[in-house]
Amino acid sequence: MTEVFFSSSDIVSAGRLRHLVRTAPRGMHHGGNASGRSGTSPDFSDFQPYAPGDDIRKVDWNIYARTDQLFIKQFMGERELRVSVILDASRSMNGARWLFARRLCGMLGLMALSGDDHFHFFTAGGSVPSVFSVKGIRNRHRFLDHLEQLPSPAGAGFAEAAVPKSLPGASVRYIVTDGLEPPASFRPLFRKLGKSAGEVRMILLRQERPDIPDRAGDVRFIDSETGKAVDVALTANTISRQRELREQHFSELAAISREYGIAVLEAEEQEGAAAFVLRKMRKAGWVR
């Protein structure tokens, strides 16, 4: 991991922050996070399927002898979180947006690993899907190296590609995307995520600089998802209409997100990943 990709100051900032969830966490150990529920009772609560990184001392060997499957004993008051991040790797995420998105995922991952939480990360929509699942602060540089070496976005259909992915249990899931696909294409993914336990949050990457020209004239538009080019003679009315359609697009996406109980925050590339987390995510009650 190079300093250019992820600065040492951002590593320090992320290490001091923790994910905050309103629902009860799906963890097995005392972690460094907070939830909307608290408790200190050592009483048995439930069983949880074993996952790499879990404390082997909490395996219930009686259940293993009967079922040949590993389960962990879960006790009341334990606050370890399972944090999952789904990154849009479709073609429209290329360029400066891709760097910003990976840095943002780096912040989310470091917060989880510094809190000794389980962390699961995967990309969807790209030509080569990528998965990274770890636990513990010792893995933070491995994760940053993984992010830095991800191939450039080169595919299409992020939401559609994410649906068939296997989703481990999570206390909170983050979707990091530019949301440029048709809003309706997100419905199957939102429906699937809504059926799983845990909170779902979407971080929508937006540009401060508009991608629609300010002046009339002949221009060539290139679809950022498909790569297809269209030559257009822009008039003042056409420019106004295109802006209306763009805002309508994101309004529809926001409405669908609310329908499935998914919280949304907009992140501008120009503000930087660390600043977004420290200001907007903290203000929204997503981190502490």
From TrEMBL:
Protein's recorded name: DUF58 domain-containing protein
Annotated region described as Disordered, given as residue ranges: 25-44
Organism classification: Bacteria, Bacillati, Bacillota, Bacilli, Bacillales
Pfam short name (any one): DUF58
Species name: Bhargavaea beijingensis
Domain DUF58 per the UniProt entry, residue ranges: 48-239
